[in-house]
Amino acid sequence: MTSVIGWDLGGANLKLAHLAGGCLVQVAQIPCPVRQEASKFDSALEQGLLICPAGAAHAVTMTGELSDVFADRAEGVAYLVDMMRRATDGEALFYGGEAGFLDCLRAVERSSEVASANWHASAALIAQLLPDALLIDVGTTTTDLVPIKAGQVAARCHNDGERLAGNELIYTGAVRTPVMAVTRTAPFNGHMQRIAAERFATMADVWRLVGELPEHADPYPTPDLKGKSTQDSAARLARMLGRDLSDAGLLAMIDVACHFAACQVAEIEAAAEALLAREVIATEAPLIGAGFGRFIALQVAQKLGRPYYDFAELIDCLPEARDMTAVCAAAVAVGLLAERARLQEAV
């Protein structure tokens, strides 16, 4: 059986999943080089192709078209489609949400449907496996919340603007989000104080201090270009309060980190609760966690009293691949959807 490679082309990371016979053979995430030019995608793709078997079919979804190296999303989609066309001799198919899989020409013509459709791929796969659920995919930068109702993707919004307005997309993630985007105040010395409106620290520092940040979740340079130890993260967080770590103390900064963490969880919890109520999803329906930050989805499930499944629990994969399977959920999903579509066509 021909292998299928599922690709999720992000602006910060390229993710790929190698599937054969419905089984996940290999999954990987490759950081895009930190440079302000479109060729960063080509460099990451070059590395990804090294682990792809000859003759494989290729299914692609993306969010990289949002990168500010492109003038707009249409230009970004066109660039990424052409990049994959050249890499696969024109054989790649592109996921367009409800439009299904599109060839290179139609993907460019229907760029608005191809743009940032990776969340739909993950949800569409889950909808084939569970009748009712809520997907919460917490990445490094954003969180996708997608309701599944009666075996169908029940999203009412499709582009990023609509999804931001409809509680289905929150620009908050477990790593790159600036702390100032989560809340404007923090407790210190027994009272609440304002924090700096500067990118002195990110949520990677917060979750590192809380002890939840997974290993390898933060490959990015820190705001001050210094280290990623507990002390380094605490020093950056102290700066958010206009203080030095020597004045504030490590334990006080851990308390502050717990406050920031709780604020981020509460924002996602509120959006999840609103979507569950909107779709009248049964209380026994689970929350499905995906992404590096799925530990946040677990906390949300616990707060809402809902069952919780890790995305990897739904996939036929080796135990040692479970973490990256959930991290690269969209790549895995688009590959499996393409493989199932090919099998249906063959019947």
Structural summary, described in words:
The protein is of the alpha/beta class. The chain has a domain at 4-120 and 316-346: Nucleotidyltransferase, domain 5 (2-Layer Sandwich). The protein has helices at 39-49, 73-87, 104-109, 111-114, 118-129, 160-165, 203-210, 230-240, 245-248, 250-278, 294-304, 322-327, 329-346, and strands at residues 4-9, 13-20, 23-31, 57-62, 93-95, 101-102, 133-138, 143-149, 152-153, 169-170, 185-188, 191-194, 287-290, 308-310. The strands form three sheets. The protein has a six-stranded mixed β-sheet. Helix 5 packs across helix 13, helix 8 packs across helix 10 (250-278) and helix 10 crosses helix 11.
> What Rg do the Cα atoms give?
20 Å
Gross CATH architecture of the domain at 4-120 and 316-346:
2-Layer Sandwich
Tell me, rounded to a whole number, the average pLDDT. Answer: 95
- Low-pLDDT parts are none
Summarize the main sheet: 6 strands, mixed
Fraction of residues in H or I helices: 40-55%
End-to-end Cα distance, whole Å, is: 14 Å
**Structural class from helices and strands?**
alpha/beta
Outline: globular
Name of the CATH first level of the domain at 4-120 and 316-346: Alpha Beta
| The CATH homologous superfamily of the domain at 4-120 and 316-346 | ATPase, nucleotide binding domain
Annotated CATH topology of the domain at 4-120 and 316-346: Nucleotidyltransferase, domain 5
Q: How are the strands ordered across the major sheet?
A: 3-2-1-4-5-6
Q: Helical element count? A: 13
SSE pattern, N- to C-terminal = EEEHEHEEHHHEEEHEEEHHHHEHEHH
* Strand composition percent: 15-25%
- How many beta strands in the DSSP annotation? 14
